[in-house]
Amino acid sequence: MSTTWEKPQSGALFVISGASGSGKTTLLKRVFQRVPGLRFSVSATTRAMRAGEAEGVDYLYVDVPTFQKLRDHGDLLEHAEVYGRYYGTPREPVEEALRQGLSVVLDIDVQGARQVQRSHPAAVTVFILPPSVETIRQRLDARGTDSAEVIARRVREAEEQLGACGEYDYLVMNDDLEMATRVLESIVLAELSRTSRRVRWVKLFS
Ligand code: 5GP
């Protein structure tokens, strides 16, 4: 991507959902490398850290009482219980970034996405689809981080999440990583090119 890409005057809030094993994390990392000026919202979670993850980068790892305190104080933009663990989006960093005109990406589940659609109707929602449910099972197996029982539960919950894909603005089929990256990048760039976000150019030329 050219470094001459100019940040829009107002940022967008992107909500990305997709079942575990949909390849969402890999896809998001690639889009972050290609589009400058996107902020990833680091969620709070009560689940344990996985190998390869880092505190404050992938998640803020908190215990249940700390999570409940954040939730009860209204410090979370949205929250949900996923796979028996709590997850939530800290409100302040997202709202501060949006106030500064930056764009923020939330990687959250369907329950959380519904809450954000209500509180931020202008949010752009994207669902990452796997080619099939069987692919999800294979990808979770290959990751090697979860037990067979956890994988079976995640596949069941993935099917439930997939059932909500019709509620989203955009669908990205992740059967080919390069094509899926191009599609997601295109969605982000198109949304950031809306005339309503490009007040400077409108003033410049009219
Ligand atoms: P994982 O434990 O595999 O990192 O994530 C499990 C699921 O939780 C994913 O579908 C992910 O999108 C979702 N998730 C992660 N952070 C949040 C959050 O802050 N809020 C909600 N609602 N879901 C989240």
Strand and helix layout:
Elements: E1 13-18, H1 24-34, E2 38-40, E3 43-45, E4 59-61, H2 64-72, E5 76-82, E6 85-90, H3 91-99, E7 103-107, H4 110-119, E8 124-129, H5 133-143, H6 148-162, E9 170-173, H7 177-192, H8 199-205
Parallel strand pairs: 1-7, 1-8, 2-7, 3-4, 8-9
Antiparallel strand pairs: 3-6, 5-6
Helix pairs in contact: 1-7, 5-6
The protein binds guanosine-5'-monophosphate.
CATH superfamily: P-loop containing nucleotide triphosphate hydrolases
Radius of gyration: 17 Å
Q: For the largest beta sheet, what order do the strands appear in spatially? A: 2-7-1-8-9
CATH-derived topology: Rossmann fold
Report the uncertain regions: none
Per CATH, the class reads Alpha Beta
Shape from CA axes? globular
Strand residues, percent: 15-25%
Residues in helices, as a percent range: 40-55%
Shape-level CATH architecture: 3-Layer(aba) Sandwich
Gap between N and C termini, in Å? 28 Å
Report the strand count. Answer: 9
Order of helices and strands: EHEEEHEEHEHEHHEHH
Largest sheet: 5 strands, parallel
How does this structure look, described?
It is a single chain. The protein has 206 residues and is an alpha/beta fold. The protein has one domain: Rossmann fold (3-Layer(aba) Sandwich), CATH 3.40.50. Helices cover 43% and strands 21% of the residues. It has 8 helices and 9 strands. It has a 5-stranded parallel beta sheet, sandwiched between helices. It has a 4-stranded mixed beta sheet with strand order 4-3-6-5. Strand 5 (76-82) and strand 6 (85-90) form a beta hairpin. Helix 1 (24-34) packs across helix 7 (177-192) and helix 5 packs antiparallel against helix 6. The longest helix is centred in the last third of the chain and has 16 residues, at 177-192. Bound molecules: guanosine-5'-monophosphate. Guanosine-5'-monophosphate is lined by residues 20, 43, 47, 78, 80, 82, 87-89, 107-109, 111-112.
